[in-house]
Structures are given as structure tokens and as C-alpha cells.
Design goal:
By secondary structure, the chain is an all-alpha fold. It contains one helix and no strands.
């Protein structure tokens, strides 16, 4: 749904399933904007 908006070039879902397991993907992709859901926003992730 997010990727179908006109201003979004690419939207991805992390392949991980734990705290901070998306770090390698994040470093490789280097997104302009990074969002997490409310439940995934911990001090460690910030």
C-alpha cells in the first residue's frame, strides 16, 4: 500500500524478526526515511 503512493520509490519489509536484526539491510539500503511501528520503537533502535 505504501509503495503505491506517488511519492514512494520503494518500500520494503525487513526480513528479520527480532530487535535490531534489520541493521545490515538498513546499512545496505541507506533509506532517506526509515519508519517502525509503535511496538518496534525502542530506545535501542533509536
Amino acid at each position: 500500500m505504501v509503495q503505491n503512493t506517488g511519492c514512494v520509490y520503494q518500500a520494503l519489509i525487513s526480513s528479520g524478526c527480532g530487535c535490531l536484526d534489520f541493521e545490515a539491510e538498513l546499512r545496505a539500503i541507506q533509506p532517506d526515511i526509515f519508519m517502525v511501528n509503535e511496538g518496534g520503537c525502542t530506545p535501542d533502535e533509536r
